[in-house]
Amino acid sequence: MGIAEIMDKIVGLLWGLPLLVSVLGVGIFFTIKSGFWQFRYFKHAWKYAFSLLKKDRNNEEKGGILSSYQAVATALGSAIGIGNIAGVASAIAIGGPGALFWMWVCALIGMATKMAEITLALYYRTKDPDGEAYGGPTYYLQKGFKEKGFFGWRPLAVIFGFGIMSDYFLGMSAYTISEAVSVTFNINQIAVGVGFAILVYAVILGGIKRLGEVSAVVVPIMAIFYVLAGVFILLKDASSLPGTFELIFKSAFKPIAPVGGFAGASIMLVARTGIARGIYSNEAGWGTAAMIHSTAKVDHPIKQGLLGIVEVFVDTIIVCSITGLVIINTGVWNSGLSSSALALKAFESGLGTWGSIILTLGIFLLGWTSVTAKYTNYEIILRHATGKNYKIRKTIIKLMRYGVALPGLCLTIYAVKKGIPSSIIWLFADMVTALPTFVNLIAILLLSGKFFELLRDYNKTKLGKSQGEPSKIKLFYEDKSKITNK
Question: Which of 36, 279, 300, 476 has its CA 20 to 30 A from that of 260?
């Protein structure tokens, strides 16, 4: 049995029925109990998101490091990356067109899941002596579980942290990015990896604030450019779109026989691949975006949670759909290719050489913002793990900043020398996503009462008859009665 088969079996166990049911079940729970809030107030979420573009809200908001817009841009930068291009392509290559359907399902209910985890991250965050606020799943595991009288937060926090830090040491994104640039421009892949590492350091060494500033500029421009290119390709062959959607829906619930270079897939494989890659892309349920959002300056936790709805929609329903529909509609999905190579072939078939160039630029720039944005997660995990040991924290964070690009560069060199296919690299992605997702889903489910309390307050003071009435909600670190739980 080769390494690919072994890894596939491990991923099959990690992303087995229990985790798939948990992802869908938790999303459905928050959707139904909130009264389908993400759909009823979808327009409200977008209105708030657009309002952040019109004016600087720093004077109205409090806590944190980044403005709300910078936080959502950074979180989108983390989400919209190679997962939207190479990740979608590899999902279709393994699970067939039906994988895109399960990504859509994961996104629609995941909007509620992501809203909940971001809200809890804002509420339970901790303020450092320097005035900067940080939060995320490890924080609400500790504080929320203590508040509710639950036991066992430490083992769960360790498992979550292990999964997130595994992503740091694997450096999968750098390999996929260097592969795409190397293939398109016929440049040595290792040389591309070195250049990419330098660009990563250019942002990372400036700290979290610089991450927000770069993401606020690069992410919207590149995402819009990529979507427009994809829409143009689809419109060129619009007559094939009805058949493409029919194939997507049919193959989501029916085993797919081998065809062309496609090896065939069971319904379980289709669903598993679509949901796993969907979460890796939009991060709903994974808990990673909650850490980035926790640094935002905002006066009500639900406000930042609203942006989770927008993020998931943009990431999956728009950007991932563009990638998937282009791959399927151009007929290259069963070519036997995978990852960035499959996406490149699809865009090239629609736009010629320019298609490859546009896609490569998309992979490179969005991958760049994704890798740099994910650094925020690693730093927040270590900040929580080191507690009040500020000297140790400072040393570890400094070492981590200087080492952040090395795993990706080492993986690129090793994979090129050993000829490791990109499909195996994406199995690593599925592995590092599974454990943190499972832990995070347990946490937000057990702390759902606090989320719904915050949501009721927001509905009353921001949306209901008592609009304009001051909120009675205090962030956890502002409540003096809870100061001992910090």
Answer: 279
